[in-house]
Design goal:
Helix content is 33%, strand content 29%. By secondary structure, the protein is an alpha+beta fold. It folds into 2 domains: 4-98 and 253-257, Aminopeptidase (3-Layer(aba) Sandwich), CATH 3.40.630.30; 114-244, Gcn5-related N-acetyltransferase (GNAT) (Aminopeptidase), CATH 3.40.630. It has an 11-stranded mixed β-sheet, sandwiched between helices. The longest helix is centred in the middle third of the chain and has 17 residues, at 122-138.
Length: 260
Amino acid sequence: MKSLEFATDLLVQAGQTNVAHYDDRIVQTTPDEPNFWFGNRVIFCEPPTDANALIEQFSADVPSAHHICIGWDIPNLPRDSVAKVFDGSGLRIEQSDTLALCGDLNRAQTPDGLTIRPLTSAKDWAQSAAISKVDLIKDGAPVRGMDNYLRQKTLSRRTQISNGLGQWFGAFDDDRLVGDMGIFHDDKLIRYQSVQTHENYRRRGVCSALLCASLDWARARASKALPVIVAHSDSDAGRLYRRAGFELAETTMSVYRPPH
């Protein structure tokens, strides 16, 4: 794939998602996670010209979906060109920024009183899901089906880790999880995944410390791979990653509509 985001999306979903390649598009489905919109989508290879045709193609390719999710494997596709085509469609436009670390990571110390280690127990993972649920609700995600989505997501992540595809690190205050992130890699790319911090522990350096610990683990296994992370570059998270040494590498565009 041309896009770093989509290439690493498939990397972090290895073993969990099905991918079918066609001349003009890629169809991704994740049967065990039907509520994972960006795991059940169609990624087109050419810029959009007809919203209805693309929506119809999505419905034909992912007939069981109650949502719509379409992307383009075209780095730096202009947002305006997508907005013009989908004006009046009712679909939301999502621009993602992919940040890459081409130099050294600006290292950070672990905050006093915290310990960083992999998530191991059911209690650890339940705390991670609880943080995710709060953030998803704040972002406007529908509550219906969320617990099942998070339960399946946890199962998928634990399976991937047991298969040696990645690792999940948490920052702990005694036995309380206060932040966590995943990291996956192959021999070319390293992808951070699902970075989150408990709302009571933000702006204390938790995320910066997790970035370091996670990258140390990945680089011990893939020393020449390029680390990337997907976040809006002008958001609080994006600014934190840029302070750590990441730079904007590309943007990608998607449109979606949640289930009615």
